[in-house]
Every structure is written in C-alpha cells, then in structure tokens.
Amino acid sequence: MLFAGQTDHPVFEKSTEALKPNAIRGLKDFNNLLRKKEFLLVLIHTLEKQKGVSLQDRVNIASLITVALQSEQKMGYLTDILTTLITETVENAIENNRQKGILKSTVSITEKLLTNWFVLTLYSVIKNSAGSPIFFLYKALKHQIETGPVDAITGFAKYTLTNDHLLKEDIEAVQLTINIVTEWDGESDEQVKVLDIDTISQVKEKILEVMYKNTRYSRRPVARDIDVEWRAGMEGHLTLEDQDQTSDVSDKWKRLNTLKHYGVFDEAFLALVYKVKHANVKSIARTPISQANPYEFVHFHNPDMAPDVISAQKSRAHILRDEEEEAEEAEEEEERDDSLKVWHLMKSKHYYTQYLDKEAGRKSRKKTKASSQASKHIPELHLTKLLSTKKTLNKYIQDVFQTLLTVEKQGFPQFPPSVKYMFDFLDGLAEKYDIEKPEEVTRIWKSNSLPLRIWGNVLKWPQFVFDINVNPTLSASLEIVAQAFVDSCSASERTFGKNTPAHKLLFVNDVRAARELVDEYYKDVAGLPSIDERQLRISLEADYIELGGKFDKISAVGELYRYVTKYGGEVLDALEEDEICKKQNLAFRLEQVAATMAESDYGSARPVP
Hints:
Layout: H1 21-34, H2 37-49, H3 55-70, H4 75-95, H5 109-121, H6 123-146, E1 175-181, E2 188-195, H7 200-211, E3 226-232, E4 236-240, E5 249-250, E6 253-255, H8 259-262, E7 269-274, H9 307-315, H10 323-337, E8 341-343, H11 349-359, H12 369-372, H13 380-404, H14 417-432, H15 438-449, H16 451-460, H17 472-489, H18 502-506, H19 508-526, H20 533-547, H21 553-566, H22 568-577, H23 579-583, H24 586-597
Parallel strand pairs: 1-7, 6-8
Antiparallel strand pairs: 1-2, 3-4, 3-7, 5-6
C-alpha cells in the first residue's frame, strides 16, 4: 500500500551497484540528516507548502520517508516524527475550530505517514488474522459473480451487490464442464466450470484460475497472450476468439463470440496455447500450456525461434493458407469493423466507449449522470436479486466485520500494540487540549486513523494486500461492502428514505449491528493495559523482522533527495529560519551534500545552491 500500483518504483530495485562513489557518499550524508528530527520536520513542512508538490508527490514523499526509516529499524523515530506532526495538526485544527475534521483523508504528508505507519505495524495482523476473512470474502464474491452471466463489455452481472452493475435482463445460461488439455496426447487432468454464453476471454480467465489456483496472479500467464484451442483427438483443433470472421453482425453491432456461438458442448476438450505472431500459426496445433512449465513458449514470438512450430508447419503444410490472402482478409475485416459497435449480452453505446478505452489502454471516462443515479430508483424485483446475492455472502461479510471490529479476533498472538499506543495517544491529545465532547471527537479521530484509513481501503482494494486480479465487476461489489463498513464507523447514524441508494438498503441491519461492534471495540481497546515506548519499540522491531529486505533504502533516500534538489532554495531558507536547525548548521550540511552530489544523477535536475 506504500506504493500502490507502482510495481516498477525504484525502491523495489537494488541501486547501489549502479551509483557512482560520490553519489553513494552523498546519499549516506543526506540519510544522516534525515535522522535529525529538526531537519526532517522542517523538510516535511517546507515540501508541504510548495504549490508544485502535487497530491501524488505528497503520497510519494511520505512513503519514501517511511521506507528510508523503516529500512534502518528507525520505526521508533518515525513514530516520534508522526506523533509530533499529529500534535501540530490538532493544534492547527483547534485554532480553526475544526477538530472533528482532522485525519480524515490522505492529502497531507502527515496523513499518508499515518497510513504507512499502520500498514507496517499491522503487517503481522493482516498476515495472521485480518487477512484471511478479507481474502475469503474476495474469493466467495468472485465465485458467486462467475456462476452467473457477466457482460464482457459493461461488466454487468446477474449476481452483484450493486444496482449499477446488475444485469437486469433474464439471460439463459447453461453450465458446461470443460476438460483442460495440458499435453500433446490430449489427456486432461483438470476440469473447469464455464457458461455456454461466456466469451472466449472469460473462458480463458476461468481456465487460468483453475490451472494456477496456487500461483500468485502476477506470475500467471496473461490471458491476452494466449489462445484457446478446441481439441478433438490429435489432429482436430480450432482456435476460438472473441471476434473473427464468423462473428454475428446485425445493424452495425457485432456480438462477441461465445462457446455457444462455436457449438462447444459439455465435456469438450480445450487447450490454452501461447499466441505466436504469424499468419499461419492458428492453423497449427500448438503445444498446450502446462502447469509444470507455463512459460515454456513465452518468448517464441517469431516462428523461426520455435522448433516445435517449424516442425508442425512442415508436417501440416497442406492446411496452411496463403499469407497474402489471409492478410488481405484481415485488413478488410478491420476496415469493416471500424463502423461496428461490439456487444455481448446487452447493447450499450456508453459502456462500449469505455470498452474501447480499456482495449486501447486508456482510462475510462467518468460515469454518466444517468448511470450514477441508477441506484436511486430501483424496482422491487431488482432489489430482490441483490438481496439474494447478499444472503449468499452474509457469512463472509460478517466474518470480516467481526474480525476487524473485535479485540479478541485481532488478538493473535496479541492485540497489535501500535493500535493501543496510537488510540491512547489520541485520547491524551483530547485531554491535553481540553477538547469539547472528547469521547465523540476521539471516536472520529480513531475511526479516521484506522478503520476508515486502513481496513476500508483494504476491503475496497484487496489487491493492495494480495497478489490477485480484481476486475471492474468484482470491484463494484467490493466497494459496496467497504462502504457499509465505513458507514458502520461513521460518527452519525445514517437516515434512510425513498432516495436512499439500493446498496445502502442492503446493509441496513448489518450497519446497525456493526455500529454496536465499533462502540464495544473502542471501549475494549481503552480497557487494555497501556503500551509504553519500550513495549512499542519491541513490537516495531518484530515488525521489521517480518518485513526486512522488501525495500531498498538507498533508492528511497535518493528519490527523496530529488525533491530537495527541486526545492533546494526553499528548504535552505527554512533551515536558516529555524533556530534549532541554525544552531546545528543543518543548512550548511545540506549544502555539503549538494556539493558531493552535484555530478550525480540525483543532483543534476536542479542542485541545491
């Protein structure tokens, strides 16, 4: 969650070997400055004030600071920095009479530091207790959605928790059992349940899910890189595709191909094979992908590099089509398809545009007003469908709520000391500054700090924690569960009326019951023995052992230094204005770092004067 969605961030790579000696020396000196509390606080305050520092920059800066300190077992120091910043935030809020509004979002470096601090200190909790029910909910919801029709273009599904993604048409679907071929001899040792109205891409995903159920998603073959072949004996094979020359076309709409379109029957044999970019390859029976070696042919993008493909071409030359003729047909089909809109189970011009964006790798446009308002007026029949899906998932939802909002469920092997420490710290601030209605205000602070900041986001985006794939259909339903959890932790109870969204009505009883859990949770945490700094330090050291080696410290320090080079003048001025920093000559020390780093990649953007 520190660098969500950034798998190629420099902190995941070891950079020391590629750096020049002066760069390594300069970064070590800068890292020593980061250990100075006064320097780090001035740096944070200065960067926070810069108009050129975007929200994403603030998130990145906070995460870089977290990694730089965590990698040196300085979590106790990070805790000191964090509590100082939160104290300053409370003081500013009191001056502006907005005590209830603090720690509500992640727009400041302080708030992102708080997020990161909890993410790191709750690692063992997620691993040993909280993670399991969240993962099981994800799996149960995914399974439930995929047992019914899902429109490949719109993402609308028969089984969902949101009216905005409910497939309202009654579409007949027949479940098929498919045998997966993994060897040349046509033998099958795996079976997959699919629907006859699944598109070929949907079938690929279901087959991959079964074949690689014990393999993390990032290490599985990618569906777009493979083909599906319908096998009949050693020689009979047909490549199935979402769109081809057999696709049904009517009134400028082209329908995606399904298993039913091809006539695939129950107990049929299908094989996954890697795509090879050659005009004739789809006329050749290729080696099926096996679980033992899924990447066997992953690099064979050219038939000249693939011996099996070459031999297959020679032995089956009589079935090959003329390349020029096939290329001409493909070009004609592409021109003809330019004017066609694609659909699967329902026709929607709006969602077709989003489909084109997805295929082209662009971000989808925002939902239309009609779409965003869809849930406000819902027929009873549709609400019944949503309730049916919700009923199936009730056990998994309740397990999640109970685990996240019960002290006993989080107490393996012990209740997280970081939670007790931070909650007591917030209570202490309310007492120190004589906050009016302290119980109400601290409840808001605590909810903003942990349940809403951490658990709400993990429920909404479990891919932040697990190496899994969350498609838009699944994401929409997870968001509904996350919203119900957020409502449970809110300061005031929600009122319901005729304009209440359908998903709110689904969780009325759950939210009311969970609100009681939240109240008990805060009372139980308050009643636990206090955690002193020594106990917290021991806990933080254990967390470091769990997380050791996941980030590169030098890379984090270097990326943070880039911000210093960009805003060097402002940072130096701030250091000179701060009395403590001035006494310690911290501005001069930073100039020395800049001189050392001047000819390095880190110092070349805009060196500190």
